[in-house]
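Protein chain data
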Amino acid sequence: MKIQKCENKKIFAEIPLTTQSGKIRVKTRNSFYEYGLPTATRQTPFSQKHYIEWQIGYDVDKSDEAKLALSTLQDTQFQGANGRIKALYELSEYLYYFVQWGIVTKDEIENLARFLQNIQEYEFLDSRNELQILRSHPVSKKILGVEFYQSQIAYPLLVHKFNHFDVFIEIVIKEKQRAVGVQPMLYVCFPITQLQC
């Protein structure tokens, strides 16, 4: 999601509420403990139950010119874990501005980097046994005269609520979209009441 402007230690970005973007969804839930359900934004009036779910990206591959154009920090450069040259975008872009504005200190970022470097591979979310995708044994089921095999799939969901805000993150362990294996998908969620027109 492209940053439109940065002003007075605030980041302004357009959030599409009535068009499907793949990265932004409007969902509804009655309480923090429920799983949010997508809502038809053109048919349902917004209420206090509505919130924004944003699948936030971490960075952008510099060879992807269309996505790179969405970053306000196109001149930044680092080598990603996959060996590709990347620029700051979305999560890393926001952190850059938060450090510049003193919202997050450089020491906090360095401490976080040290913490992450000391995590063993078996401790990664996608390596933990208790966070595996569960699949039930298929059972035969006939529907409208057609025989199917039915099974259930359960994806682990982790939710972290920030102390004084109605902002939280969700991490869902899912299959990788373009490769073999699983990966944690990060979503930033915040109340629709936090939006400004």
